[in-house]
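Tip: read the tokens left to right.
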């Protein structure tokens, strides 16, 4: 492997991706792929922790891969693959299960939120989800994990599990660091700017999807909830306005202060219109390219097969080390 440090991250194919997934994760990955040994996964095994239609899961998995490539992830630079194609993820997850505690998994806020939504149908998989995520990361001796703010707690757990295993045996895993960018790490709902934008929201005006058409994007931003202050400011008292400014800032690279200055003496309608236009132009090529790629199943297959082979090589090495440390008899 090269001298470069390794980054790993993944997204669940649990529906069309949102602007949150794009700004909080993929956009950063595209920049990082130049300087890091990059591995990006589509975590289909995580997606089945809540009920999924098989045909939707298949479609969404390939759609996410198309989104990755259309957003600028280069299959020649980054390893792009599907989690279930590399069995070492599930195998390592099993071992790590035996080094993870019931109490700590029960404290995961995402588990608590999701189990509220799926009451009466809380699977062991949903509970165990963060251990599989730790396996994803630790398998590749990952240095840095670029994610949105909502994954911070899972990342902490991955670090704890890695350290626990290293202390129990001997240094085996790199202890990964989170990479959570300052802007865009928590894109908020357009309808309730105090909660995060999420594809599982019942109100489809609350999120922008990567495959939304320009008219839909404009309509959703026009309806975005703001406040009654009436002046465009960047502060926590105006979370709706702040969210729009953050979205603009993440895409254009301008600072929040510069954006506020530009909108001096202007109204919310203008800020919404400008944000919509910026998002439309950012997402247009991604949507168009994704649609094209999604039709070329053979091309996608070449990418994910090559990705899985590369990932497997690295993953197997770690798994072999782990099996040896815990005392499993080697087959060879
Ligand atoms: P997932 O599929 O929910 O989200 C994928 C990525 O998008 C980020 N994200 C957001 N960022 C900013 N604003 C938002 N509103 C927003 N919504 C989502 C998430 O933080 C994430 O980076 N458990 C993970 C997937 C996973 C993973 C991994 C990630 C599995 N194994 C290993 C990193 C490393 C998840 O459910 O993400």
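Filled-in amino acids:
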């Amino acid at each position: 492997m090269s001298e470069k440090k390794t980054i790993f991250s993944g997204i669940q194919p649990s529906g069309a991706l949102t602007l949150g997934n794009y700004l909080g994760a993929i956009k950063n990955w595209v920049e990082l792929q130049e300087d890091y040994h990059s591995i990006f996964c589509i975590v289909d095994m995580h997606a089945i922790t809540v009920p999924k239609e098989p045909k939707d899961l298949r479609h969404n998995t390939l759609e996410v891969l198309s989104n990755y490539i259309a957003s600028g992830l280069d299959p020649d630079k980054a390893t792009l693959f599907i989690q279930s194609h590399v069995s070492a993820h599930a195998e390592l997850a099993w071992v790590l299960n035996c080094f993870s505690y019931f109490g700590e998994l029960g404290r995961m806020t995402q588990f608590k939120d999701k189990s509220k939504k799926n009451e009466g149908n809380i699977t062991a998989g949903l509970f165990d989800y963060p251990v599989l995520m730790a396996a994803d990361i630790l398998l590749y001796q990952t240095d840095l994990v670029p994610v949105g703010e909502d994954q911070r707690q899972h990342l902490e757990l991955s670090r704890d599990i890695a350290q626990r295993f290293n202390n129990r045996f001997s240094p085996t895993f790199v202890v990964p660091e989170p990479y959570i960018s300052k802007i865009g790490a928590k894109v908020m709902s357009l309808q309730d700017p105090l909660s995060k934008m999420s594809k599982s929201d019942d109100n489809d005006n609350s999120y922008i999807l990567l495959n939304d058409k320009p008219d839909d994007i404009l309509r959703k931003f026009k309806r975005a909830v703001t406040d009654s202050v009436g002046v465009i400011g960047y502060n926590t008292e105006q979370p709706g306005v702040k969210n729009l400014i953050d979205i603009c800032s993440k895409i254009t690279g301008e600072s929040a202060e510069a954006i506020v200055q530009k909108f001096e003496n202007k109204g919310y309608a203008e800020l919404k219109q400008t944000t919509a236009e910026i998002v439309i132009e950012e997402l247009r090529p991604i949507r168009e390219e994704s649609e094209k790629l999604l039709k070329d199943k053979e091309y996608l297959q070449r990418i994910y097969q090559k990705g899985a082979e590369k990932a497997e090589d690295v993953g197997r090495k770690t798994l072999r080390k782990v099996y040896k440390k815990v005392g499993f008899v080697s087959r060879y």
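The first strand starts at residue 6 and ends at 11. The mean pLDDT is 97.
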